[in-house]
Automatic annotation (TrEMBL), chains A, B:
Domain of life: Archaea
UniProt protein name: acetate--CoA ligase (ADP-forming)
E.C. numbers: 6.2.1.13
Pfam families, sorted: CoA_binding_2, Succ_CoA_lig
Keywords on record: ATP-binding, Ligase, Nucleotide-binding
GO molecular function: acetate-CoA ligase (ADP-forming) activity; ATP binding
Domain CoA-binding per the UniProt entry, residue ranges: 4-98
Enzymatic reactions: acetate + ATP + CoA = acetyl-CoA + ADP + phosphate
Keyword Nucleotide-binding attached: yes
């Protein structure tokens, strides 16, 4: 697997000097990689992007672990056979026309898998748009403009390459990064299990987010999620019958939505309902301490967003515990005549003491997770100084949501993120991210800490 | 009401020269207005922001329709009495401590309403952060940095001022504008009905979006929504019991969530489940022709996002009709061997013919609303030229979703918006916006076009 996702050198099979062709786009992306790149094409001569064409992967004079196959489907099994001969351990297959395209395609995919098994080649795809690792400037894809996607600590593992990019670009749009982005496609011999296990050992990855349309081996996927140390979140698509459209896609049958939802719950995996929620949940899990329980303390500077957040948290099964008398006394001492000192704590409007109130709630022994909402107020800013060190001190997730002019808050919220506090710019998005933390806590609770009504796997 | 929302001149009662005070922040905001502004304060002398202090509203020598009351609660009834004497027809009351604060507060609020009735003054608040009309640079609020919020054609009418700002800043963050943003607060004598009726007649407003926590007069609100010509969307908060926190807020009892949901359905109002969905639904309704039916044609360049969109649309009750044979033939002629030519139409990846495919689906007589997903591809861009004039031609909403680097797509999606196509950067957000259009179509259908199972008011 490390040949595939962490190669020393790369071959682009079917490389082309013609812009617009997949073999050209893949070359253009992959030359940003800091390692040797070889264009392979038996019918081309000269060079492309200053690299000399080679006639076959077996003719490469150098260290290559990964081949990007930009050739049509019928040729792919032979190329993989040659990869095996050339000791290339990983290959990305962009072409469609395999398992998703009926019996003939399946036959071709079987030949492909045989060649890969024979030659010990890990295959990403076929029918994928590839993968990328921004930290390594490794863009194993034909998609364009992907070098804008920042490096981060969330690994995106999607059944659909298209959805993988939809998520990665949302991350870019929000200034969030990914440690890797992978579109699995047909999963000929690299599926969810292999990818999850690989990214579990990846030092750059602190959470793994999954897009699942359906798989032949649900149990294997679930057991892998439970076995790995890194938190996993899943976006399970297919609640409704979308008919043969899904089947025509990655050759997978949807329609087992409820089974997967129940399985993820049992095996400790929070589930979400959109690509945005998936990214947000992964970001919150990757950048926070793991929560010890489902009890959320809410601090808000404005009642309306606080009520919307509370409503949504409760609908998702979160508990808003009473604060200890000690905390309530501290809060009332900081802000005599405070608008609402129960949980949620409502300070009425932003104020210099706001950070002290958050600090008091975060230190409350009844609280496992803190959610803060405060509209930006010029001249006051965010309580970044007051909150510095707090996350480490209390070892609990603190999530911060706000609204304000983009130009200003982008910069100021980044300072909160730098001290370990994930941030969001819509109240309900923060509530959804915290709901995923709540699910994580409930679904991974020690047996004696299990909340009534929650099912936990016997071998937890 | 036009004294309140469309004044010629403004008095700031309790104006202050001390930064940080509400009377200073309100002055700072309101001097951007293109009209006379008078700071009123009996105990101040000299000037603030180059305007001379006046001792009382009755002493102003000039045309004033609107008073911003930055004084403490106990003084407010007397100020409103003076406003009546001075023929000032609108007032914003920022202070809390009225109906939301128990019996004594209610008594004060009753005195306030009596004074307003006597003097014929329309009151926004008390317990509000005010309103703004970006087009007029009218910022009747003490909140900061609000002059960044762009002008647009969606009116935000929120029970909570905090949530109004949360929505308005989300709009700013996304480059979307608002025609007005209003936080109703305690609704002493200006409530949902008055605000909705006013913005229905406002030429800048093409849709009205509501945040509702609860109101004494649900029926009046619903009948107003049905009576007005402008489309209304509602975000109804309070599915869960959030206890006395909500009551302490705007003096309203939540807990009638299901009743409101059913009422909005019956009276033709789409409902949504978050502030983001509310803004998106309002934007889609404001910038599209009204849909004639709930039948959605989906065109996607990537299967994964297409499946996620279809799944979500179906869950929300949308219908994906079969395309006519004629349309299918056109699509297959444009793209021989197309990946999937039913509905959704999946072109497999972006391509120069993508716009022609969208055009064909939009012209299909079975389709009432079109939803398009296409990841951005450099060198190809979006099919803006192909789609120009299409919305007017077919008189149907066309909604476009995409993913790509922020720097690039912000500009390119704006070109699509300029030709009447609302755009979104997450597949599920586009699906949610289209779901609101579907709800609108179903809930406002002519009786003979009613879809089975939908309830419609007898006087529709």
């Amino acid at each position: 697997m490390s040949d595939l996702f962490n190669p020393d050198g790369i071959a682009v099979v079917g490389a082309s000097a013609t812009p617009g062709k997949i073999g050209y786009e893949a070359m253009q992306n992959v030359i940003e990689f800091d390692g040797p790149v070889y264009p392979v094409n038996p019918s081309a001569s000269g060079s492309v992007f200053d690299r000399e064409f080679v006639s076959a992967v077996t003719e490469i004079d150098g260290d290559v672990d990964l081949a990007l196959c930009c050739v049509p489907a019928p040729v792919v099994p032979d190329v993989i056979e040659e990869c095996g001969e050339a000791d290339i351990g990983g290959a990305v297959i962009f072409a469609g026309g395999f398992g998703e395209a009926g019996p003939e395609g399946q036959e071709l995919q079987d030949r492909l898998v045989d060649a890969a098994t024979e030659g010990d080649v890990a295959l990403l795809g076929p029918n994928t748009s590839g993968f990328l690792v921004p930290e390594e400037q490794l863009y194993a894809t034909f998609a364009t403009d992907i070098d804008t996607i920042p490096s981060g600590n969330v690994a995106v593992v999607a059944q659909s390459g298209g959805l993988a990019y939809a998520i990665a670009f949302q991350a870019e749009n929000e200034g969030v990064g990914v440690s890797a982005m992978v579109g699995l496609g047909n999963r000929a011999n690299v599926g969810f299990e292999e990818a999850i296990e690989y990214f579990d050992t990846d030092p750059k990855t602190d959470s793994i987010i999954l897009h699942v349309e359906g798989t032949d081996d649900g149990r294997g996927l679930l057991e892998t999620c439970q076995r790995v140390e890194t938190p996993v979140v899943a976006y399970n698509v297919g609640e409704q019958d979308v008919g043969d459209f899904a089947e025509s896609h990655t050759g997978a049958l949807t329609g087992e939505y409820e089974l997967y939802e129940a399985g993820f719950a049992q095996y400790g995996v929070p589930t979400v309902r959109s690509s945005t929620e998936l990214l947000d949940a992964g970001t919150a899990l990757a950048s926070s301490p793991r929560p010890d329980g489902p009890n959320v303390g809410v601090v808000t500077a404005q009642a309306g967003p606080g009520i919307a957040i509370t409503d949504r948290l409760k609908a998702a099964g979160a508990t808003l515990p009473s604060l200890t008398e000690e905390t309530q006394e501290i809060v009332e001492e900081i802000l005599p005549g405070i608008t609402f000192s129960a949980n949620p704590v409502d300070t009425g409007r932003p104020m210099p003491e706001f950070g002290e109130v958050v600090d008091a709630v975060a230190r409350d022994e009844n609280v496992d997770i803190v959610l803060v909402y405060e509209l930006y107020e010029g001249g006051l800013g965010y309580p970044t100084d007051d909150l510095e060190g707090l996350v480490d001190d209390v070892d609990k997730p603190i999530v911060f949501a706000s609204g304000g002019p983009r130009e200003i808050i982008t910069e100021e919220l980044a300072e909160l993120e730098a001290i370990g506090i994930p941030t969001f710019t819509a109240p309900e998005r923060a509530a959804d991210a915290v709901s995923a933390l709540v699910q994580y806590a409930k679904r991974n609770a020690e047996p004696d800490a299990v909340v009534a009504g929650e099912e936990v796997s016997a071998d937890d």
